[in-house]
Design brief:
alpha/beta; 10 helices
């Protein structure tokens, strides 16, 4: 439901609200490139992110989490669903309106080297968005802003004259963060933004993101396959499997009392020196099925150690549980 102003009733509580997002990709074969099937990258995805909060979207590679992030920004075209950001449905905006909206919701990708133009100096890359959105009266003001941003991401302002190849991977990711901050966003989509970095550098970037959130009130959609980095940064977690969210809830509840067998298996796979942690839950069995031909019933039943006969025939909904939701019949409340 929307009000007469076109805003969603829950906009005061949520900066981003995703409702029933669905993005499928066609499989084309033959000389005429006819569509012979569909890859179900994201199916019926719904979640909310409040101002100043972080939602981690986690799952194995190929589960569709990156597609969700790209679909929110309309870098991919969803088939269905609504995405409310700052009260506006991004799916209904024109190209010009969507371009303006991207000033307020930025994205940081996994590979910083691929994200940066090797022919442009750091100063020009950070200032590019400011010029595009009319931030700063002139180049002198923008240069001062670039220097300020480099300091904020813990880089020497004198490095603005350098090129991307002159920096380490962690430093390049800091430059990408500075570039995202340059247009004064309210939210940043972090798409595997620390997965290509060494563990020690990961910790530094996570510290930086947390400090920026506290100082600037930023919201994050933090997309990752690595649950070990989630606990430090995220307030809420949504676990994806084969295009669906199978569990969601506050980070502490997810880690201390996971409800879905897939979540339990992911947590059990995190390396630990604690002997009580090892073997705390059955492992996730086998390989991920093809998203172009998902199993009938519960998509996870081919790998689940607790599979029941009904799981092979019937797809479970997201059941409401204490502190979140779970897409598993084991979470169904008794009648």
């Amino acid at each position: 439901m929307r009000t007469d102003t076109g805003r969603h009733p829950s906009d005061e509580a949520s900066l981003l609200r995703v409702e029933g997002l669905q993005t499928w990709f066609p499989i084309r074969r033959g000389l005429m490139r006819r569509t012979t099937g569909w890859v179900q990258a994201a199916t019926d995805i719904s979640f909310e992110i409040a101002p100043g909060r972080t939602l981690a979207l986690v799952g194995e590679s190929g589960c569709g989490k990156t597609t969700v992030g790209r679909s929110i920004l309309r870098l991919e075209a969803p088939q269905k669903g609504r995405v409310f950001f700052e009260g506006k449905d991004l799916m209904t905006l024109s190209r010009a309106e969507m371009r303006a909206a991207r000033q307020r919701i930025q994205i940081i990708f996994q590979d910083p080297m691929a994200s940066l133009d090797p022919r442009m100096r750091v100063r020009d890359q950070i200032a590019e968005g400011m010029k595009s959105f009319g931030i700063g009266a002139n180049d002198r003001e923008r240069d001062a802003r670039v220097a300020e941003l480099l300091e904020r991401v813990q880089l020497d302002p004198d490095t603005m004259e350098r090129y991307p190849h002159e920096f380490s991977g962690g430093q390049r990711q800091r430059i990408c963060i500075a570039r995202a901050l340059a247009v004064e966003p309210r939210m940043i989509v972090c798409d595997e933004s620390v997965s290509a970095l060494d563990v020690s550098i990961q910790a530094q970037i996570l510290n930086l993101l947390r400090d920026l959130q506290q100082d600037l009130g930023l919201s994050y959609l933090f997309i990752t396959h690595d649950l070990s980095v989630v606990r430090y940064l995220a307030h809420e977690v949504a676990v994806m499997y084969l295009g669906e969210i199978v569990e969601e809830g506050p980070t502490r509840r997810i880690f201390e009392s996971p409800a879905h067998p897939y979540t339990k298996g992911l947590l059990a796979a995190i390396p630990s020196i604690d002997p009580d942690h090892r073997g705390a839950a059955p492992p996730v069995l086998g390989d991920v099925p093809s998203p172009s031909d998902p199993p009938p019933g519960c998509h996870f039943h081919t790998r689940c150690p607790f599979v029941m006969d009904r799981c092979r025939k019937q797809a479970p909904p997201l059941f409401e549980i204490e502190g979140g939701r779970s897409r598993c019949f084991l979470s169904e409340s008794p009648a």
